[in-house]
Design brief:
The complex is a heterodimer of chains A (399) and B (401). Chain A has a 14-stranded antiparallel barrel with strand order 1-2-3-5-6-7-8-11-12-13-14-15-16-17. The two termini of chain A are 17 Å apart. Chain A has helices at 2-19, 43-47, 369-372, 391-398; strands at residues 75-90, 93-112, 116-126, 130-137, 143-164, 170-190, 197-219, 222-229, 232-242, 249-257, 260-268, 273-283, 299-311, 316-330, 336-349, 355-366, 374-389. Chain A has four helices and 17 strands. Chain B starts with 10 loop residues before the first helix and ends with a strand. The chains are: A mainly beta (399), B mainly beta (401). At the A-B interface, strand 1, strand 2, strand 4, strand 5 and strand 6 of A face helix 1, helix 2, strand 2, strand 16 and helix 4 of B.
């Protein structure tokens, strides 16, 4: 009854992660809708390079590749989140902020013998909460601040089906409901008794996405994974509200997030060491719909390398990875933004292999003050808990 | 044995390496205090609205006079001071005729007006009694320029001279029996009396109790009548008031009470964008030095005056709705003030929104018709630095691309 034993820990984790306030300014590069489409929640995958990796794992329910669900032969669940401490820098900025984000919750269950597995879950696309303040003075010297706040997020409910076609192929497909709301607020903050002015734009996104993936093992030591996500066509209800209500507007606009392709491979170099490689491409130059300046768009590229080494007789896993990203937009005048992340992690499998806890610690740096005028340096702690239970055995006990 | 298999790291060494790496990274991150971030609006897809500070002129500035005398006071006054002539108006009432309807058939032998002059500060106060030429009810307007309009009322006890004096004793002032007889018998003939000070070269004011005076020692006015059948009656003074007539003229704007005068101005609000948010707005008037005054009664002189700014319901001062409107703000003036500024941020914003009427702004004394007081303000005819102006800080809505 590993799952039963994990339940309290899982509930506590959900409470901690879910009840925590929304993260503030995970990254100043997340001030817009673009990029950072998914931060995979599973701490093992994160430690091995992030969502671009596919890992053979019978408890890897939180993986990004839908085909990985084919490894789930029992009723499985997973919950994950992370805590981030984030430091933003520019010539005018030196700020640290902290936030906790609940990213993944997924349940998987076998549909047909040991072959077909289905899953339903929740995935937080990314957390774009952010705020900053720009001081200014009027022509007569009265001070005020232009305060910018952004909150909300995009979320998905993926419905996944995976087929285990043996060691040589595992296939998966998903359909996800995409929802989200982004609210931006500009506040002209004057000193009392002067009145403030507020302008709010609220964008409610509704769309859906299809995708699929497979994992092949052409030789026993090598696995290859491929994931494809279709573009997401959003209907965006845009509402602008201002202090002066005569300026209020309301409209519906389309937005299209481009498709993304992810390729991964893992190679078991020895009994104790496995090496992981992965990468993805998403051409955000095809992005449409929210008036982001097209000359600022770029192709998102992600590449990661990781390894997992099992220590000693207890076979404690030590994981480490390095990831390179090119963010899908440029700052300030066409300069590409690169992000580097170094992640380490470990995990602990519960007795009888029915549950596990994984942790990862990631150190990342995005952009540079010299090149991009902004930089973002973060430390992120991942925690994921997964468990499984054999439905058939439970039924037998009830009978 | 493969290349990778030759690596073997102990658990303690691994943990040490991981912690060392974390420590080095964290130490490289200073935790400086937060600062502000400049926005890159291109990336945000939005930018804050622009802030403007404007000075808006006023036009059509006018002073409007409302001839409503102060009637609610416990005293009434006659005399003159530096700024005003004070005139007492009294309207005899004959409510006592109801229980004594036969009085209308009697003949008046003598009649006199009793006034509370027994404690007059300045006796032998020369006055004349005039027939007002109309009835007076408290709240009525009296056009002071035409006052009095009727004949002087002679003193039958002094050879019918029209010259009288307010004295400590006796505080009774004879009236012609025929006049009072007419008042008793003809309801339409009951016009009011005006008591006018005649020594215009000598600025002084006599103050006596009004019909509103109550309490121990007060002496309100009444009419005392002796009929030829030796029946005596007293009849009340139904309404009384002090009418103030300005003795000076000015080209400045003036807000006053006693002679209620209100200032009305229009502002060039159309120069502001309709979708602007108003952060601050105030209308500034420069006070003409030395004109903040409560003349005539040194004992009750105060050094401050509260003015009230409102948006009238009508732009026509002749219309009754001009007297009413949306109260905006009030301001206490104290001696030595150079300017008076009324905040109108919210009002201006609501005008731009169309919630309030753009009917201009009017200024009046707070608690009007209660106390003689005034202040002069420079108008649009004054040098530019002294003209009334509206100072406004606005901002446009944020632009979301």
């Amino acid at each position: 009854m590993i799952a039963t034993r994990l339940a309290p820990a899982c509930a506590i984790a959900i409470l901690i992660l879910g009840a925590a306030p929304a993260a503030r300014a995970d990254s100043i590069f997340a001030l817009n809708l673009l990029g950072e489409r998914v931060d995979v929640g599973d701490a093992r995958v994160a430690a091995l390079g992030g969502f671009v990796q596919t890992v053979d794992d019978s408890l890897g329910v939180l993986q990004y590749n839908p085909a990985s669900l084919a490894w789930m032969k029992r009723f499985s669940f997973g919950v994950a989140g992370y805590f981030t401490t984030d430091k933003n820098e520019s010539e005018e900025l030196d700020r640290r902020s902290n936030g906790t984000t609940f990213t993944n919750l997924l349940f998987a269950f076998p549909l047909y013998r040991q072959v077909v597995t289905a899953g339903v879950g929740f995935r937080g696309r990314y957390d774009p909460d952010a705020e900053f303040s720009v001081p200014a003075v009027t022509s007569e010297g009265d001070p005020f601040n232009d305060n910018y706040e952004r909150s909300g997020g995009l979320f998905a409910v993926p419905l996944t089906v995976a087929v285990d076609a043996g060691n040589y192929a595992k296939l998966g497909a998903f359909y996800s409901l995409e929802r989200g709301k982004l609210e931006e607020t500009w506040v002209k903050d004057f000193e009392s008794p002067n009145a403030d002015a507020v302008s709010v734009r609220e964008r409610v996104f509704k769309g859906h996405c299809f995708g699929g993936g497979f994992v092949a093992r052409p030789v026993s030591r090598l696995s290859i994974g491929l994931t494809y996500e279709s573009e997401i066509d959003y209907d965006v209800d845009v509402t602008e509200r201002h202090t002066s209500s005569v300026a209020d507007t309301s409209s519906t606009e389309p937005a299209t997030l481009p498709a993304r392709m992810t390729l991964s491979a893992s190679f078991r170099a020895s009994r104790d060491l496995t090496v992981f490689l992965g990468g993805s491409i998403c051409d955000f130059r095809d992005f449409e719909g929210i008036n982001f300046p097209s000359n600022r768009l770029a192709r998102e590229e992600v590449a990661a390398v990781g390894f997992e080494y099992r220590l000693g007789s207890g076979r404690v896993p030590i994981r480490a990875s390095f990831r390179y990203e090119q963010l899908p937009y440029t700052i300030p005048d066409g300069e590409e933004i690169t992000k580097f992340a170094f992640t380490i992690g470990s995990g602990r499998v519960m007795k009888r292999g029915r549950g596990k806890v994984d942790i990862a610690l990631q150190f990342a740096n995005a952009g540079s003050v010299d090149k991009n005028t902004y930089s973002d340096r973060s430390v992120r702690f991942y925690l994921s808990i997964t468990g499984s239970e054999d439905w058939k055995r439970a039924r037998d006990r009830r009978e | 044995m493969s290349f990778f298999s030759r690596f073997h790291i102990g658990p303690r060494a691994g943990a040490f390496c991981a912690l060392s790496a974390a420590g080095i990274y964290l130490l490289s991150c200073s935790s400086d205090p937060p600062n502000t971030l400049g926005s890159d609006s291109d990336l945000l897809g939005s930018e804050p609205g622009t802030v403007s500070q404007d000075t808006i002129g006023v036009f059509d500035d006018t002073t409007y006079v409302f001839n409503t005398p102060i009637a609610a006071g416990t005293t009434v006054e006659t005399g003159i001071d530096e700024l005003y002539e004070h005139i007492i108006v009294m309207q005899p009432g004959f409510a006592d005729l109801s229980p004594h309807p036969g009085d209308t058939l009697r003949t008046v032998s003598t009649a006199s007006l009793h006034l509370g002059t027994g404690a007059l500060a300045n006796p032998s106060f020369p006055v004349r009694f005039y027939r007002l030429g109309r009835k007076y009810t408290e709240g009525d307007t009296i056009t002071v320029g035409t006052l009095p309009v009727g004949d002087a009322i002679p003193d039958p006890a002094a050879g019918n001279t029209i010259e009288r004096a307010l004295e400590l004793f006796p505080p009774t002032y004879p009236l012609p029996p025929s006049l009072v007889q007419t008042w008793i018998r003809d309801i339409d003939a009951r016009e009011a009396i005006a008591i006018v000070y005649t020594d215009t070269g000598n600025e002084r004011v006599a103050v006596i109790d009004s019909k509103n005076a109550v309490g121990e020692g007060v002496d309100p006015p009444y009419l005392d009548v002796l009929f030829t059948d030796n029946v005596t009656r007293t009849y009340e003074i139904r309404d009384d008031a002090t009418v103030y007539r300005a003795r000076t003229t000015t080209s400045n704007l003036i807000v006053s009470d006693g002679v209620p005068r209100r200032v009305f101005v229009r502002t060039e609000i159309d120069s502001l964008a309709k979708d602007a948010a108003v952060h601050n707005a105030r209308i500034r008037f420069h006070i003409v030095p030395g004109t903040l005054a409560v003349p005539g009664d040194a004992d009750s002189a105060v050094s401050d005056l509260t003015l009230l700014l409102y948006i009238p319901d009508s732009t026509d001062p002749a219309h009754a709705d001009f007297k009413n409107g949306q109260r905006i703000s009030e301001k206490l003036l104290t001696e030595g003030d150079d300017v008076v500024e009324f905040p109108l941020s919210n009002a201006l914003f609501l005008i731009l929104q169309g919630t309030l009427k753009n009917n201009g702004f009017a200024i009046r004394c707070k608690d009007e018709n209660t106390q003689l007081r005034q202040v002069e303000l420079y108008g649009t005819g004054a040098p530019d630095s002294l003209r009334p102006k509206v100072f406004v800080t606005t901002s446009k809505p944020a632009v979301f691309d």
